[in-house]
Amino acid sequence: MTPETRTPPPAVAPPDLYGRARPDRMYRLLRPVVAAHLWLSKRSVRRGRPVPVVDRDLPVVVSDRRVEADGVVSLTLTAPSGDPLPPWRPGCHLDVRLPSGLRRQYSLCGDPADRASYRIAVRLVGEGSGEVHSAVRVGTPLVVRGPRTAFPLVGPGPHLFIAGGIGITPILPMLRAATDWHLVYAGRSRATMPFLAELEPHGDRVTVLTGVPAAPELLTRARPGTAVYACGPPPMLDAIKAHWSGALHCERFSPPPVVDGEPFELQLGPGGPVVPVAADESALTALRRARPQTVYSCQQGFCGTCRLNLVSTTDSMLVCTDRRPGRVVLDVRDSRDS
Amino acid sequence: MPEPALVLAPRAVTFDWSAVPAHWVPGEPLATHVMNTLHLVLPEGERWFVHVFGQALPHIRDDKLREEVIGFIGQEAVHAEAHQGAADHLAAQGLDPAPFVDQVSWLFRTLLGDRDLPAPVAHQWLLERLAMIAAIEHFTAVLGRWVLRAPLERAGADPTMVDLLRWHGAEEVEHRSVAFDLYAHLDGRWPRRVRTMAVAGPVLLWLFARCTRWLMRNDPLRPGPARLRDAHRAARRGLLPDLAGLLRATWQYLPRAYHPSQDGTTDEAVAYLATSPAARAAAR
């Protein structure tokens, strides 16, 4: 799949398409055109400019912290300068760098019209959220990036919003923007469900379900032409996907963590440095520590962009998902990695 | 208000070609083959994008752009393999695309491949190719927007093929700014933008025209020669993009102040991807 590298300038054009005994006419004509581009490239060396470093960090400070439900706190973030924050649309999230350096993504759940502050809400479930709950207070400075969106609200509706637990966060601002909508909000118990009071004024446009409702119950209000927006735990999303064949919008998640992995080693070329791969990380994660320029994309083993050949075999590996026992020697002299 | 940046990531789509007929726009062999050219040109072209973008990655000094380029690379790689599947299906139906694909392969791997150049010139050759890709991506976004709106199902076009084209078109609209932004970040010189468009536009048109002609000539169902007036007629039915629109689009790329986020709407692409059978099946 990798184009051959470092070939000398082409001597001839490919054969004619219709079998005539001469090189193909179009490609014969393209050779001098590409030669002109090469010549212009040589000329362009002189006035090249350095690449500017673009800083995407946005410093903010926690200006309010509230307990929204059992195990859920919300944080209000404002710019220390008091300047307006970058605009956003319902469905956007922030990348938040916590004081420990951990990075987590949280949906914006405030009002997009409020340019002075962002609001996020965090359920206590792991290391990152533990830090938010224990170490982040009013006045704590944080660095965020974004907003970006993986869950944009589009179309005139009707919209059926389905939220499971903390999955209510990206949906809340959508309720301000949508006109023809209904919300089904499910959670284990009312005590664990944030923002119930904020939903009160919407009356019977909001259905609150407790326990683990089945997909048909979540989809009661769906009609042909309804756009379903669902955010919640993966089993809930899978059930909705299986029961609903119309338009379905879900927030796209990061790749699943490595489970039951064995540690192994990567060697970067024959005689090259050896990079250990821990049991709970992918070979890609380890390789990127040693070679930040490594090409990859999906991190789930389907796009093929991270495939690297193994030295002295005809074998190759997808470094994002493949694991090999012992040590493998990667052919990383490949020019696209240099 | 500027649109907030969309998070770009590839989708693990699959298509079952087994039931797709040879003339998948019924009674429109020419329109069928104009769109089939994508299966012959894009796999090698998009692999070249991935290769060139992979070389650009270490030079990027903007974390947001880097993430977008990584998403772009995966989307393009999946597009290439999806169209490869459609090309293999053409071969199975008795229209072996190999002679044409071999030429395309020579274009991208040899003529536009890496050259043995001194490092500063090699870097400029990389930038030149990034500018070419930005110009090509301008057309893919225009065509993506076209295919999202084209009345293909009214003409009875095969739903699997329509889904391939619209899913691909929607992702082209989603990532339409990435190649432009990458070129602007690493170089951005306007003369280079103009000269690469001046070449990429006509060459693409030529490549697609000769590919259509070759497909019509080699179609085992013998639909007759590729005629311009059939193309005009299909364009009037909305089954092909019209030439005047493509020329206008080329012109729009040239002003210094142009940016791809100004044209097309991401919302249309997002709405299609929520209904696309292939994209939905791939959602995880």
Helix content of chain A: 10-25%
Supply Rg of chain B. Answer: 18 Å
Query: Within the largest sheet of chain A, what's the order of strands?
Result: 4-3-6-1-2-5
Number of strands of chain A: 16
Question: In the CATH hierarchy, what is the architecture of the largest domain in chain A at level 2?
Answer: Beta Barrel
| CATH class categorisation of the largest domain in chain A | Mainly Beta
Broad shape of chain B: globular
Structural write-up:
The complex is a heterodimer of chains A (338) and B (284). In chain A, a hairpin with a 6-residue loop joins strand 14 and strand 15. Chain A contains seven helices and 16 strands. Chain A is 19% helix and 27% strand. Chain A has four domains: 1-46, no CATH class; 58-149, Translation factors (Elongation Factor Tu (Ef-tu), domain 3, Beta Barrel); 159-250, Nucleotide-binding domain of ferredoxin-NADP reductase (FNR) module (Rossmann fold, 3-Layer(aba) Sandwich), CATH 3.40.50; 264-337, Ubiquitin-like (UB roll). With 284 residues, chain B is mostly helical. The model of chain B has no long low-confidence stretch (mean pLDDT 95). Chain B is 67% helix and 1% strand. Chain B has one domain (29-282). Chain B has helices spanning 29-56, 63-92, 98-111, 119-149, 159-174, 178-186, 190-218, 228-236, 243-252, 266-273, 277-282, and one strand at 5-6. Chains A and B meet through helix 1, strand 6 and strand 11 of A and strand 1, helix 1, helix 2, helix 3 and helix 4 of B. Strand 6 of chain A pairs parallel with strand 1 of chain B. Chain B: This is Metal-dependent hydrolase.
